[in-house]
């Protein structure tokens, strides 16, 4: 039996390799062979997770999290930074505190990792590297939040965890305990973490209990709306590496519920009820995108879905889950903003539209668009693949923080 099982595994593995080896190399990528290798690896992992899910062996997201958990590193302090896994206001965080003596008060960042609200951890190698580097280069206290994840927890739990840590940390007494300057605190995050950072920054504006104002928000290829999943960036990058359209639909719907009916409605982009049609003005790409991103795309009026889905899972219409749905009046009070978008990314247009809307109401925005980068490029700086574009992105991000925080 052992031999038979090994043979079966060998044949399956060979079939996978043969199938993926013919994946075309994208010509418009920098370092196309590295991108192809990454793309093949991710497709294989995703397909295996899909098969395991279909066979009822393990949930799709849980299968993927086996891979992300494999990449976790323990909280290790070094000569520059003291690193501890602890809790702030009952939420798990990884805390980075510089050791070098500071002449004055320090800067601080509350950081939210990506992973579609269902994967990832502050202790993943790439996030530990990023937050440690931030603490080091900026001589800043960094709080990296381990908010609870789907499929066990759904919206608004992730947002509430992110918010309660930030609100707790912004108390004068807590800031002074860590030697932090109350005028130099920011929130930041990538992908789903960028979504949480944007939502937290908006929500703080309306919370009369919070005296400390954020100095800045840094949103790295953020997901900002689940209303229209047929933007030009979703069309052009539907099958691009790392984050395909179908995976993003799965992650968005999984943020709100495990019910597959929402996923199916989102996949055909008919999940918004006609009663909520007024919200489309905030995500209407035909008005909000620059000409070069609209090229070759025709805007089609939304197809409305049944009101039952929105009644059962109102989260996808909630501004705490979709910061792009905020009114101009609400956006006006936001702090200095840094937004990164990537050309090869379904989420590109979310970030571009947000940057445009913020600028229009007078919020100072720096928007760096990396035409040749793909979603999550910054996470692969510490991988053996060592992407040059990820390094450029990371350098720009750190330089902006250093200058503006």
From TrEMBL:
Alpha/beta hydrolase fold-3 domain boundaries: 109-268, 317-378
Gene3D superfamilies xrefs: alpha/beta hydrolase
Cross-referenced Pfam families: Abhydrolase_3
UniProt-recorded Gene Ontology molecular function terms: carboxylic ester hydrolase activity
Matching SUPFAM superfamilies: alpha/beta-Hydrolases (SSF53474)
Active site per UniProt: 191, 345, 375
GO cellular component term of the entry, any: membrane
Keywords: Disulfide bond, Hydrolase
Family classification: Belongs to the 'GDXG' lipolytic enzyme family.
Protein name (record): AAAD deacetylase
Organism: Trogon melanurus (Black-tailed trogon)
């Amino acid at each position: 039996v052992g031999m038979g099982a090994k043979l079966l595994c060998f044949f399956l593995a060979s079939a996978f390799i043969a199938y993926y080896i013919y994946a075309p190399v994208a010509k418009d990528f920098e370092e196309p062979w590295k991108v192809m290798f990454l793309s093949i690896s991710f497709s294989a992992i995703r397909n295996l997770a899909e098969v395991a899910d279909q066979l009822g062996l393990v949930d799709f997201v849980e299968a993927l999290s086996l891979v992300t958990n494999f990449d976790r590193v323990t909280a290790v302090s070094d000569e520059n930074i003291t690193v501890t896994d602890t809790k702030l206001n009952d939420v798990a965080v990884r805390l980075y505190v510089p050791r070098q003596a500071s002449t004055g008060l320090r800067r601080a960042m509350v950081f939210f990792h990506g992973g579609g609200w269902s994967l990832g951890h502050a202790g993943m190698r790439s996030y530990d590297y990023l937050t440690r580097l931030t603490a080091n280069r900026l001589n800043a206290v960094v709080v990296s939040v381990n908010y609870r994840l789907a499929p066990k927890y759904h919206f608004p739990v992730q947002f509430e965890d992110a918010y309660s840590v930030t609100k707790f940390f912004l108390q004068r007494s807590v800031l002074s305990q860590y030697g932090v300057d109350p005028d130099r605190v920011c929130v930041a995050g990538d992908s789903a973490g960028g979504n949480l950072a944007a939502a937290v920054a908006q929500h703080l504006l309306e919370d009369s209990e919070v005296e400390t104002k954020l100095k800045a928000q840094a949103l790295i290829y953020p997901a900002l709306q689940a209303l229209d999943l047929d933007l030009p960036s979703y069309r052009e990058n539907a099958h691009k590496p790392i984050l395909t359209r179908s995976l993003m639909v799965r992650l968005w719907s999984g943020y709100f519920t495990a019910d597959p009916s929402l996923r199916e409605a989102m996949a055909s982009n008919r999940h918004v009820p006609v009663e909520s049609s007024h919200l489309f003005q905030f995500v209407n790409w035909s008005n909000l995108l620059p000409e070069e991103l609209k090229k070759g795309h025709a805007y089609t009026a939304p197809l409305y879905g049944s009101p039952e889905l929105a009644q059962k899972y109102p989260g996808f219409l909630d501004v705490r889950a979709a910061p792009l749905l905020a009114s101009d009046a609400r956006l006006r009070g936001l702090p200095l903003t840094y937004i990164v978008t990537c050309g090869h990314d379904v989420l590109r247009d979310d970030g571009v539209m947000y940057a445009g809307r913020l600028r229009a109401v007078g919020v100072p925005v720096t928007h760096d668009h990396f035409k040749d980068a793909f979603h999550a490029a910054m996470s692969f700086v510490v991988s053996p693949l060592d992407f040059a574009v990820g390094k450029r992105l990371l350098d720009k991000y750190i330089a902006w923080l250093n200058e503006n925080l």
